[in-house]
Amino acid sequence: MDPVRNPYAPGAGQRPPELAGRDDELSAFDVVLERIAHGRPERSLVLTGLRGVGKTVLLNQLRSAAIGRGWGTGKIEARPDQSLRRPVSSALHMALRELRHPDQESMEAVLGVLKAFALRQTADGKVRDRWQPGIDVPASSGRADSGDMEIDLVELLSDAAGLAADVGRGVALFIDEMQDVQADDVSAICAACHELSQQGAPLIVVGAGLPHLPAVLSASKSYSERLFRYLRIDRLDRPAADRALLAPAEREEVTFEPAALDALYAAADGYPYFVQAYGKVTWDVAAASPITAADVAVAAPVAEAELAVGFFGSRYDRATPAEREYMHAMAELGGPNGSAVATSEVAVSLGRKPASLSPARDSLIKKGLVYSAERGQIAFTVPHFGRYLLSHPD
Ligand SMILES: Nc1ncnc2c1ncn2[C@@H]1O[C@H](COP(=O)(O)OP(=O)(O)OP(=O)(O)O)[C@@H](O)[C@H]1O
Ligand SMILES: [Mg+2]
Questions:
Q1: Can you point out the beta strands (E) in the chain?
Q2: Which residues pair with 140 in a beta bridge?
Q3: Residue nearest to atom 25 of ligand 1 (CA)
Q4: What is the mean pLDDT of residues 204-229?
Q5: Are 330 and 342 in contact (CB under 8 A)?
Q6: pLDDT of 62-96, one tens digit each?
Q7: Which of 36, 212, 253, 269 sits in a 20 to 30 Å window from 367, CA-based?
Q8: Cα–Cα distance, 140 to 142 (Å, whole number)
């Protein structure tokens, strides 16, 4: 069928033609926004899940919901080894502009604090460039500029929330890839959320990250379990996966035979990225509507080959030989379903001492390829990665 009209969209953070199966999360978020705007206590939210499950897309959708209610919003994508100071300043700058506080003077006072926060160098003073935050008011002094991220963030966020409270709205800060936030910054974020929720300030942090993010947060502050509400973002169930395929097709007056949907669910296993990837190729190979199981049979190997290069291969290529060896051992032990395995068993199967494998394991975690949900256990962050490795022995 006409590839130009192909609605499916495999990609990172790519808005899907139909956001299927996330109604519960969206309506829970509406309640949260409403409660916070009324000064009621609410926890900040953290979305966790495997690669390609739709965390970024959902985060963006939640942001739209907040904007729709007139909230000020900003978004950050955390990177390993990067301080949050600059990204937070840009995100809050955006949020303050979106708030459109009617009183110029109050607005400028907070912008002055924001500028001071942004320009404050980190304690090690490494960033000595001429970066300018693009805020056209003079930096103030004495607030949010101590250099201690925890103190500064609490002060800055309280001021921003104060502006939002004046106008009966709130501020929402979205943090994607939150597992990559540096330890000091994680504890500053937790402390700020803790402090602001005690003040009843209308500010919420919404994080998204890999399944071990709750462990990262609780390692930082023991109270983080009470601070955040964790929502596990999972595979789509059968009705949602069907809707993800059918709704966009039907807008183009195309439909699928039930047997085609069976075959697509078997292949994509409900993982949103795979639903889009298989849907896209199937559309292109199908001659006419309704799309049949035979079309899917032709498309599946093509889609698999594309995934092997783009989705799996690009990640595998980032691993060193030692890391690859480690992942192959994980795949053998975990089987095609990619079950979590004990790190001690990986060591036994490689005939090595567990301690000698720690560097490979730690750097795989840092690269976001594997995670440890429980002490002594390790699993792939990428769905079907074990299966891919088993069919691509090196
Ligand atoms: N609810 C959904 N229904 C249909 N398609 C979806 C849904 N959520 C996400 N997708 C599609 O899945 C793909 C992956 O989404 P996204 O980038 O948000 O995943 P992610 O969890 O952020 O992945 P990563 O951990 O790699 O960042 C995109 O192509 C997106 O269009
Ligand atoms: Mg993402």
A1: 44-48, 72-77, 171-176, 203-209, 228-232, 341-342, 370-371, 377-380
A2: none
A3: 51
A4: 92
A5: no
A6: 999 999 999 999 999 999 889 999 999 999 999 99
A7: 269
A8: 7
The CA distance from 373 to 103, in Å, is: 48
Domains and CATH numbers, the chain: 3-12+236-315 (1.10.8.60), 23-232 (3.40.50.300), 318-391 (1.10.10.10)
DSSP conformation class of 221: -
Residues with a CB atom less than 6 Å from ligand 1? 9-14, 16, 18-22, 49, 51-57, 244, 272-273, 275-276
| The dihedral sign for the CA sequence 48, 49, 50, 51 | negative
pLDDT tens digits for 48-68?
999 999 999 999 999 999 999
Task: Return the amino acid letter for 383.
Answer: P
CA distance 272 to 108: 43
Report the predicted TM-score, pTM, of the whole model to 2 decimal places.
0.95
Q: Backbone phi, then psi, for 379, in 5-degree steps?
A: -145, 160
Residue 379 CB coordination number (10 Å): 21
User: What SS3 class is residue 175?
Assistant: strand
* Summary count for the chain: helices (H), strands (E): 17, 8
Amino acid at 365: I
